[in-house]
Automatic annotation (TrEMBL):
UniProt keywords, alphabetically: Membrane, Transmembrane, Transmembrane helix
Transmembrane segment boundaries: 9-29
Protein name: Uncharacterized protein
């Protein structure tokens, strides 16, 4: 059970990181 929770947390963190990266990338493209 703990492994499933760890995996879910890892995927959540990964998704949040990717979303943040995409937002920053979009802002940089708009600023140019």
């Amino acid at each position: 059970m703990a492994d499933i929770i760890k995996t879910a947390m890892l995927y959540s963190t990964l998704i949040i990181t990717i979303n943040a990266f995409v937002v920053v990338l979009a802002l940089v493209i708009e600023m140019q």
